[in-house]
Specification:
With 293 residues, this protein is α+β, with helices and mostly antiparallel strands. The protein has helices at residues 59-66, 87-102, 109-124, 132-137, 168-173, 181-200, 203-208, 216-220, 226-235, 259-272, and strands at residues 2-11, 20-35, 40-45, 71-77, 140-144, 147-151, 156-162, 240-243, 250-253, 277-283, 289-292. The chain has ten helices and eleven strands. The longest helix is centred in the middle third of the chain and has 20 residues, at 181-200. The N and C termini lie close together (5 Å).
Length: 293
């Protein structure tokens, strides 16, 4: 048996739609795999009642098929589905790394990114790498047609998860098909600022670079209380706030000394709109880890 822990992730970071991603040091999924004649799936943990165990409908089933590695796969969910924290990516990445080890396929983590992305296609309809790349590789990742680039960085973050659900498919439907050139230039400039901030480990630049006029405003409409939460986080010391992935989680960058205050302010703001929420005081962390044989 091989066991792998894979972290939650946050994609887009505002200005990097379908390109940027970060691994978070918490929460995480744990996936156990054992060789079998055919793939079977068992799911426990948070939100497990909503996750299909049919290999044709589960992300890890797609990964097992892609690697030609049938197994009994047990997923212990720590990342809630439909959270905007890369729940499906955590399972996909963990399964890809575990099955690669179990069957001695010899693929590098970089080579496993497109394999894990096939699992993502089960959920979103498209094989995106913006969540699975950081889940496998850790740090801040840039996934594009040119490949995946990784930056080892350390930025304090708060991920605030409200008790509402936004499906990835619904969040993709609201993304505009066109953008004004002014908004495009604005977003590209902020994406460049965020990237420099990650390289310099500068929370101020990272937060400033999260601003986006194209995708984030459309997705924010799906999150009850988003603007109130955003303003509360900024007032508490956040350097930038955006929708985490498809939502409904809201992600804030901040300095370490402000993280507890920002987390409390975000939860309180959701409470003002009668929405229960929990905040993860986290940071950019490592990728998936094999920790048991």
């Amino acid at each position: 048996m091989v066991t792998v822990r894979a972290p939650a992730t946050s994609a887009n970071l505002g200005s990097g739609f379908d390109v940027f991603g970060v691994a978070l040091d918490r929460p995480a999924d744990v996936v156990h795999v054992e060789k079998a004649d055919r793939t079977t799936i068992e799911v426990t943990g948070v939100g497990s009642q909503y996750i299909p165990t049919d290999p044709n409908r589960n992300v890890v089933g797609a990964v097992a098929e892609e690697l030609d590695a049938p197994a009994h796969i047990r997923i212990d969910k720590g990342v809630r589905p439909s959270s905007g924290l890369g729940s499906s990516a955590a399972s996909s990445a963990a399964a890809a790394l575990a099955l690669n080890e179990l069957y001695d396929r010899g693929l590098s983590r970089e080579e496993l990114v497109p394999v894990a992305a096939e699992g993502e296609a089960v959920v979103s309809g498209e094989a995106h790498a913006d969540n699975v790349a950081p889940a496998l590789l850790g740090g801040f990742t840039v996934a594009s047609a040119a490949g995946v680039t990784t930056v080892d960085t350390d930025i304090p973050l708060v991920a605030c998860l409200p008790e509402i659900a936004v499906s990835t498919r619904d969040a993709r439907r609201v993304v505009p098909n066109r953008a004004d050139i002014e908004d495009l230039v604005h977003t590209v400039g902020h994406a460049a600022t965020l990237t420099v901030g990650m390289c310099r480990r500068d929370p101020e630049l990272v937060g400033a670079g999260m601003d986006d006029r194209i995708v984030t405003p459309a997705r924010a409409e799906l999150i009850n209380g988003y603007e109130l939460v955003r303003e509360a986080a900024l007032d508490a010391g956040a350097t930038g706030v955006t929708v985490s992935g498809a939502g409904p989680s809201v992600l804030a960058a901040c300095r370490p000394e402000h993280r507890t205050r920002v987390a409390a302010a975000m939860v309180a703001a959701f409470d003002e709109t009668n929405v229960d929420a929990r905040a993860y005081k986290t940071r950019v962390g490592n990728g998936a880890e094999i920790f048991e044989f």
